[in-house]
Specification:
105 residues; mainly beta; 4-stranded antiparallel sheet; 3-stranded antiparallel sheet; 47% strand
Length: 105
C-alpha cells in the first residue's frame, strides 16, 4: 500500500508511479459542495478515469473496469464520514493505492 499525498490546493496534477506504470493524478476540491475528487491520466494527459468523488472507506474504482487503469484499488481512510477541505492537510484523512497482488496476499 502506498499513501498518496493530496496537495493543499483546490486543483493539482502530480506524476505518480502505480504498479510499475507512470500516470498523472489530479485532485480537485469542490468548495460549493465541500468534497474532494480525483482523476487519473496517462502520460499524454489523456483521461483514463473521470473525476470521481473521494468517499472514505469505499473502493473508489468499484464501478470502473477500464483496461488502462492500474492493477489495484484507490481508497481513503478518514476519521470523519466525509472528507472536508483541510482533512488531508490536517491528517484527518489519507488517500491510498493498494496493488491487487497485495490484496490477494
Amino acid at each position: 500500500m502506498i499513501y498518496i499525498e493530496v496537495p493543499d490546493m483546490n486543483d493539482s496534477v502530480s506524476r505518480i508511479t502505480l504498479s510499475r506504470k507512470e500516470y498523472y493524478i489530479r485532485f480537485t476540491y469542490n468548495p460549493s459542495y465541500d468534497y474532494w475528487s480525483f482523476g487519473l491520466y496517462n502520460m499524454k494527459m489523456e483521461p483514463i478515469l473521470p473525476m470521481s468523488k473521494i468517499v472514505p472507506f469505499s473502493p473508489l474504482l468499484y464501478f470502473y473496469k477500464y483496461t488502462d487503469l492500474p492493477n489495484g484499488q484507490f481508497g481513503c481512510f478518514s476519521v470523519n464520514k466525509r472528507v472536508g477541505r483541510n482533512d488531508f492537510k490536517e491528517k484527518k484523512a489519507r488517500f491510498f493505492y493498494i496493488a491487487n497482488d497485495e490484496l490477494e496476499g
